[in-house]
Amino acid sequence: MQQASIQHKIMVVDNEAFVVEELVEFLHNQGFSCLGCTSPQEALACFMENPEIDIVLSDFRMPHINGVQLVEQLRLEANPGRVFEAIIFTGNAETDDVIAALRADVADYYQKPLDLKQLLLGLSRVIARIEKRGAESKIKTLSQNLRMLSSSLSDICNGIAPVDTDTRNACGTDGKSESQSDDKDPSAKLSPRQRDVAKLLARGLTNYSIACELGISENTVKIYVSQILRIFKLSNRTQLALVLDSGRSLQPV
After folding, report:
1. From 1, 125, 144, 146, which residue has the greatest number of CB atoms within 10 Å?
2. ω into residue 63 within 30 of 0, thus cis?
3. Is 83 in contact with 137 (CB distance < 8 Å)?
4. What is the mean pLDDT of the chain?
């Protein structure tokens, strides 16, 4: 953990100053670079001033906006291509709060008082996820640049004027709109974590096995399965497994 933690910076957000101080001190002792904030407004400013922050630990219940709303605001404010993950913790975990966190694609959530050992394990998983997303983002950017270069060369060779940028962004290489593509491939609507669950479903794993594989609770897996079924418009996981096993529905988006 020590070597990996040096490469990552954490922002801790909680309206209770003593919680922030204790967490920051603990994480510093674990080798993390860490900043603390006692309000969502301070967190927004800190996040924008420190582009190296890639992990956000936030309390759910805070004045003005909650932790999930803060994470969504950070995503809106973040520069394109910036990769970060969020973990939510709360003293009173209600079902609606958990569902809101999952819909916001929060990496994980914990209940207060925090089990620091479990938190460190969760941070290890989050770091692995960040590094994977960072690699995927670089590959995606490279692929887009190569496609644009290929298209430009083709236009030059054929003497055709370059396609308008807005049109190129709205359509795929076959000229179909994103909405048409999404209708034919429901997996395009899956979040990264829903996609992880779907891949394990395709392998025939049970909810318990998926929970162990991804390091999340079995109840969390059930919620993800329900969301995936709704996206694919299927009634049970057997039908879903058959569709996913075909391989067509989990091609990279």
Report:
1. 125
2. no
3. yes
4. 79
